[in-house]
Design brief:
Radius of gyration: 24 Å
Number of domains: 3
CATH class of the largest domain: Alpha Beta
Shape: globular
CATH topology of the largest domain: Metallo-beta-lactamase, Chain A
CATH superfamily of the largest domain: Ribonuclease Z/Hydroxyacylglutathione hydrolase-like
Number of helices: 17
Strand content: 15-25%
Distance between the termini: 46 Å
Organism: Ruminiclostridium papyrosolvens DSM 2782
Helix content: 25-40%
InterPro entries: Beta_Casp, MBL, Metallo-B-lactamas, RibonucZ/Hydroxyglut_hydro, RMMBL
Strand order of the largest sheet: 6-5-4-3-2-1-22-23
GO molecular function: hydrolase activity; RNA endonuclease activity
Keywords: Hydrolase
Pfam family, one: RMMBL
């Protein structure tokens, strides 16, 4: 058996793993790269395998960083079945067409820019129609049932507690009259998350591929009441100043949990919550609106607490001041209103969607608050704001960041370091080897070392493009073909160029803003001299 790590290896996005046996070839996930410009470029690269040779695909959940390149996979020749839980199939039914629409809109903007520069147009990654076409490949499966997906491969989907329909994959592969078990954690949720069940316990495995998004840190607000109290205090303080609270949120998962928590704690925090609930709460994302309907159709996936609310006649995903906007016109009108409001809008990392308009209208306002409740990948607009950027660019315009910036990690859909360790610790028969993925490079390495130090288990942190052969209980690193090596080396150079471009752009913004301040002739000459040195170094390097 051979496992190739083609995405979410020393990075968080682009999950994609190719598994090859003597008889079968399949993918686990095929997600979109997000965040840094150099990583986003990877979406347009040709796959390092022939999609037409794949027998099937296993999808852990619907988030775009796990599912977003399935339409491209299909247009490039994949005709097999995509196995996923039934809620994941439903969610992909709205999320992939939405992604196709975004690709078309961004491509239209790109081509206008290229036309002005005298450059030929380019095609989108995929279209709305292509995204819709690939949905015919999906097949829904139930949790906890072992199914045969080929003569030599069986699989079972277990609840991962990350978003509705998310799954841990238990995969049994038979080769040479011997069965090997491989487990893919997918994205693991926190224990005690609203609506969802806790991540399932796995009895045993020979090899484990585990995520590490928060593998180097602990969520600060462990107690649910602490998390909600801080959430409500931030909102209350902002409203008292006449500002808006803008919450960038993933349309699927985090939005529904925020609605649930606001509804659930009406009685616990009394007047403060009632004050908030008199303020309109707008979910400004058509995708989130559709996803909330799908949540309401899958009550069997809810935890016991949520089921009890429903049994008592309460709708945990609704309350009187909650409003859903649909049209772009409704969305625009929100920024014309004078009264305070709470706006929950996608995308969660602020790189697309309506939230960018709300940021443009609120980032400069000292009385408003931008509240992050989910992970912000490196290179995203959300991460820049979270890390303290003083000025950001939105729709070609520089916007000062004067608003209050807050983050609450207790809402995260990812387990923290202790949660991940606890889950690995709970596995009955421990794995012979663990592959640590889905984490930024330093985080993945740190978590791998933590696993070894605390659990005594050996880990590998694969790089993108690396392959490993598992045979007879041993692991061998597989040397990729010359073409594959060339492709990944070329991509590495592209990454370096894009990183340099980002750093130069950031330096340029800093210097331009610095020069707006009152400067002496000597200080201006010093800046000019430094830039001359940089220019000279670049010219020398290119000779």
């Amino acid at each position: 058996m051979n496992i190739s790590f083609l995405g979410a290896a020393k990075t968080v996005t682009g999950s994609c793993y190719l598994v090859e046996t003597k008889e079968t070839k399949f993918l686990v996930d095929c997600g979109m790269f997000q965040g840094k410009a150099n990583e986003v470029l990877l979406n347009t690269e040709e796959f390092s395998f022939n999609p037409g040779d794949l027998d099937f695909m296993l999808l852990t959940h619907a988030h775009i960083d796990h599912s977003g390149r399935i339409p491209k996979l299909h247009t490039d020749g994949f005709k097999g079945t995509v196995y996923a839980t039934k809620p994941t199939v439903q969610l992909c039914g709205i999320m992939l067409p939405d992604s196709g629409h975004i690709q078309e809109m961004e491509n239209e903007w790109t081509n206008r820019k290229r036309k002005r520069a005298g450059e030929p147009p380019v095609k989108p990654l995929y279209t709305l129609e292509e995204a819709t076409d690939c949905l015919g490949l999906f097949k829904g499966v139930a949790y906890d049932e072992v199914i045969s997906v080929s003569d030599d491969v069986r699989v079972r989907f277990k609840d991962a507690g990350h978003i509705l329909g998310s799954a841990i994959l238990e995969i049994w592969i038979r080769e040479n009259n011997q069965e090997t078990k491989v487990v893919f954690s997918g994205d693991l949720g926190n224990k005690g998350m609203p609506i969802l069940r806790d991540p399932s316990i796995i009895g045993d495995t020979d090899y484990l591929i585990v995520e590490s998004t928060y593998g180097d840190r602990l969520h600060t607000l462990k107690k649910e009441t602490d998390k909600i109290e801080r959430f409500i205090s931030i909102i209350s303080e902002t409203i008292s100043k006449g500002g808006n609270v803008v919450i960038p949120s993933f349309a699927v998962g985090r939005t529904q949990e925020l609605i649930y928590d606001l509804n659930k704690h009406m009685d616990v925090f009394g007047d403060k919550v009632n004050e908030i609930l008199n303020v309109p709460v707008y979910v400004d994302s058509p995708l989130a609106t559709s996803a909330t309907k799908i949540f309401r159709e899958n009550l069997d996936c809810f935890d016991e607490e949520a089921k009890a609310y429903i049994a008592n006649g309460d709708n945990p995903l609704d309350f009187p001041s909650l409003k859903f906007t649909q049209s772009p016109e409704e969305s625009r009108k929100l920024n014309e209103k004078a009264e305070s409001m709470i706006i929950i809008s996608a995308s969660g990392m602020c790189d697309a969607g309506r939230v960018k308009h709300h940021l443009k209208h609120n980032l400069w306002r000292k009385e408003s608050t931008i509240l992050f409740v989910g992970y912000q990948a490196e290179g995203t607009l959300g991460r820049k704001i979270q890390d303290g950027a003083k000025i950001v660019k939105l729709f070609g315009e520089e916007i000062s960041v004067n608003a209050r910036i807050e983050s609450i990690d207790g809402f995260s859909g990812h387990a923290d370091k202790e949660g991940l360790l606890s889950w690995i610790r709970s596995i009955g028969r421990k794995p012979k080897k663990i592959f640590v993925v889905h984490g930024e490079q330093g985080v993945a390495a740190s978590f791998a070392q933590t696993i070894t130090d605390e659990l005594g288990l050996q880990c590998i942190v694969p790089s993108r493009g690396e392959s490993y052969v598992i045979s007879g209980g041993n692991i061998y690193e597989h040397v990729p073909s010359a073409n594959a090596r060339k492709r990944f080396r070329r991509l590495a150079v592209v990454e370096m160029l894009e990183t340099l471009k980002e750093e130069f752009d950031e330096l340029s913004e800093i210097l331009k803003n610095d020069l707006k301040q009152e400067k002496s002739d000597v200080e201006i000459d010093e800046v000019a001299a430094k830039l001359k040195m940089v220019e000279k170094s670049i010219i020398e390097a290119l000779k």
